[in-house]
Design brief:
- The protein has four domains: 148 residues, no CATH class; 140 residues, no CATH class; 226 residues, no CATH class; 199 residues, Trna Endonuclease, Chain: A, domain 1 (3-Layer(aba) Sandwich).
- The protein is 54% helix and 9% strand.
- It is built from 28 helices and 14 strands.
- The strands form four sheets. It has a six-stranded mixed sheet with strand order 9-10-11-12-14-13, with helices on both faces.
- Strand 7 and strand 8 form a beta hairpin.
């Protein structure tokens, strides 16, 4: 690249930035990477009302001299690789000769960028054509194109299989579709054993695959649905049941049951095809794009996976195990809270009939579990706002959902399993379930339920009882219902307008709104992880709520309180007086002896795919690392030059910290203990556990989750195990750092042994 101060004209924002950085004695390689980072971060930022479109920003960057004159070796930097991936993943802007030049000068960088771009699923893209033309520059790029062709062929075959099956069910309404989904669920997905006293664990992988397939197919039906069909009436429901459900459950074998049976067979085939497509994307194309632990090698017309980094692959599995153990940790925390607070007044939690007390108590504990996690790890207040703008008591909302789950588990899923055990036939079991419901007071025990909003509010009102409102609060019940509602009409309208928006997963908002009618799926509500539902309802679907910033502040404040209890001096939300490269607000500064900690806090949702995790790493966490670099620099400068700043942390000039630590504290578990811009990323929950020194709760000390104890025994169990202490010789900053950097919180050793074991 020509020296910008001599030959390169500063023609646009990115060139100007490069010139300025090099003028500040920043090395060329660092300057180019920071310019690429600015592009990835969506800069230039709007000035007044002037805001560049994505196309304008892409055009500006790819026409810049920074790009045109970038030395070959700089394409291998992380930021330039990600930038190139972004170029390959868009259509409107073409940079003539770019791909051919990188194919010639830096083929490894191009191959990596192609993987990250998602081009593998877009064979008709202009950028793919550009890649094909550039392939002659390098044999490795030629081979890459052959691999992409095989992926495209396999993907096309699976998409065609899904579309063929969709044709057979194209005339079904959304409600008709849910009838067949529910029949399929009871035939294939509902567990056959509900006799264990252990709490129902989070949904397994196979179940989740099926739910995801149903979610995808529901979006397909909504995208083509008429608005009138989504406003259910009693007559419309009756007609659907008579045509699609009654023939299977009560008229099997009759001539007029043929259409319903054919539809059910077609639905099974459609589910198989959709699951196959989704698995191909998750296990093949997403792995190709985002799993750096493997590579795909072509063997003729087949692709084989070759493992190149076992540690990287193992890390993903460990993250999944961590989530399972955190689920148990918060449940045991809930038991402790229950013992301390609720047991003092047993009447507080008694809901429903005496014979249901044990199940309802478990629902109460599950609600406490979710509330504790949301409060401490995600900073969620005890009162939140629904999409309708109404205030919702978080605990009551959580309790209501868990009581719904309890009801569907007991009266639908467990009852069905019992009938199935007696009959051996799933259709007969559903028949008996339905008939038993009728005999028990005309109760609906069909594979899906529905009610008008008024009836649902009345049912929930009893779950909002408090000492001050012994009859419950209908307004609160209404707000709770809104909090868990998935509006079919609103979603269909967005899909049909092609508006980019997040579609709820069925478990996140399990009350399906069809106009004035509310539909629920017992096979979802009875099996879902309600803690995950609440987290993603608030943090994925509700990330733009006005409360989100306050929640981040509460996470920071909660960490500060725990640090102070361990002897740290802390400072929250410090703003540097620096001019120029403003580092922004520093979330949390803490000092202990000669140690300084600068902590950047990020709050997000629970991710389930490698693609989601990769996007989080390359966007939010990459940016957090860059932000933290600037913030650490600003804090160190303030320590060196600002007595007022030192006074805020009660540090005289002769006690300035000599050991500096920058940590990214994130509510997600993905990319745990990786480094971004050189800074360690660690989960908020790991920090909480390390500071509280209660890692024994990660290891099911009462045997409750393993099914060894029932709830009653666990309530009485001593869960404090001194042998698990992270600080057997007392707390110190040095040991705290060692605990975090060595991942000691996740040590799976036997609590009776002092010898550590590897974390699996």
């Amino acid at each position: 690249m020509t020296d910008p101060r001599r030959g390169m004209a500063a023609t646009n924002y990115y060139d100007n930035l490069c010139v300025r950085l090099i003028g500040d004695s920043v090395p060329l390689s660092v300057a180019v990477e920071r310019v690429a980072g600015a592009y990835l971060d969506g800069k230039p930022l709007p000035v007044g009302k002037k805001k560049l479109t994505k196309k304008e920003r892409d055009s500006l960057f790819w026409s810049s001299n920074v790009v045109r004159e970038s030395p070959p070796e700089l394409w291998n930097t992380e930021a330039m690789s990600f930038a190139l991936a972004r170029y390959l993943g868009q259509e409107p802007v073409a940079a003539e000769g770019l791909v051919a030049r990188v194919a010639r000068d830096a083929p490894d960088a191009l191959i990596r960028a192609v993987r990250y771009s998602g081009l593998v699923l877009d064979p008709h893209s202009s950028r793919r054509a550009e890649l094909d033309r550039a392939a002659s520059e390098n044999e490795a790029v030629v081979e890459l194109c052959r691999v992409l062709d095989l992926f495209a062929l396999a993907h096309c075959d699976r998409v065609a299989a899904v579309e063929a099956q969709k044709e057979r069910l194209a005339e079904l309404s959304v409600f008709d579709f849910l009838i067949y989904a529910s029949l399929y669920a009871f035939e294939v997905l509902v567990p056959r054993d509900f006799k264990s006293k252990a709490p129902v664990p989070p949904a397994g992988a196979d179940l989740q695959l099926a739910w995801d397939a149903v979610n995808d197919l529901l979006a397909w039906k909504l995208a083509g649905a008429s608005m009138s069909s989504l406003k259910l009436t009693e007559d419309g429901i009756g007609n659907s049941l008579a045509r699609h459900l009654r023939p299977i459950l009560f008229e099997s074998g009759r001539v007029d049951s043929g259409e319903a049976l054919r539809n059910l067979h077609a639905f099974r085939a459609l589910m198989d095809a959709q699951i196959e497509l989704n698995e191909f994307i998750a296990r093949s194309t997403d792995a190709f794009c985002y799993d750096d632990g493997i590579r795909f090698e072509r063997r003729g017309d087949r692709l084989e996976i070759v493992e190149v980094d076992p540690a990287a692959r193992a890390a993903w599995q460990r993250d999944g195990l961590k989530l399972e153990r955190l689920h148990g940790y918060w449940f045991h925390r809930a038991i402790d809270t229950y013992v301390e607070q609720v047991a003092a007044d047993p009447a507080m939690w008694r809901i429903g009939r005496p014979e249901n007390y044990e199940a309802n108590r478990l629902a109460w504990l599950r609600a406490l579990q979710a509330q504790l996690q949301l409060r401490e790890a995600y900073g969620v207040a005890d009162e939140v706002t629904s999409d309708s703008g109404n205030a919702v008591d978080l605990f009551r909302a959580l309790l209501s959902l868990n009581l719904m789950s309890t009801f569907f588990q007991r009266d639908f899923l467990a009852a069905f399993a019992e009938c199935l055990g007696a009959s051996g036939n799933w259709i007969v079991a559903l028949q008996r379930l339905a008939m038993d419901g009728l005999r028990e007071g005309l109760q609906n025990r069909l594979p899906l339920t529905w009610s008008d909003r008024g009836s649902k509010v009345a049912n929930i009102t009893g779950w909002t009882v408090t000492a001050s409102e012994p009859a419950g609060n209908p307004r609160m019940a209404s707000a709770i219902l809104d909090f868990w509602t998935y509006d079919m009409v609103a979603t269909a309208e967005r899909l049909q307008r092609n508006e980019p928006d997040l579609q709820p997963h069925l478990f996140e908002r399990p009350v399906l709104k069809f106009g004035a009618t509310l539909v629920q799926l017992p096979w979802i509500v009875g099996l879902q992880n309600n803690s995950s539902a609440a987290i993603n309802n608030l943090r994925r679907l509700g990330a733009r709520r006005g409360q989100a910033r306050d929640e981040a502040r509460r996470i920071e404040a909660g960490l500060a309180r725990l640090l102070e209890m361990r002897g740290f001096k802390t400072l929250l939300n410090w703003k540097s007086p620096r001019d120029g490269d403003d580092p922004g607000e520093v979330d949390l500064i803490a000092t202990h002896g000669r140690h300084l900690f600068v902590i950047e806090v990020k709050s997000t949702f629970l991710r389930r795919s490698r693609r989601e995790a990769w996007l989080h790493a390359t966007n939010a966490l990459r940016k957090a690392g860059q932000q933290l670099r600037r913030k650490v620099e600003a804090v160190l400068l303030a320590f060196a030059s600002d007595p007022e700043f030192r006074a805020l942390l009660d540090l005289p000039e002769d006690r300035v910290p000599t050991h500096h630590h920058g940590w990214i504290a994130d509510t997600s578990i993905e990319c745990d203990h990786q480094r971004f811009a050189g800074f360690l990323k660690v989960s908020v929950e790991e920090l909480l556990i390390a500071l509280r020194d209660d890692r024994h709760l990660l290891n099911d000390p009462a045997g409750l989750l393993a099914g060894t104890y029932g709830v009653d025994e666990a309530l009485e169990a001593d869960t404090s195990v001194p042998g698990w202490s992270l600080y057997p010789d007392g707390f110190s900053a040095e040991r705290f750092i060692e605990v975090i950097e060595s991942e000691a919180v996740w040590d799976l050793r036997d609590s009776t042994s002092r010898a550590p074991a590897a974390c699996n």
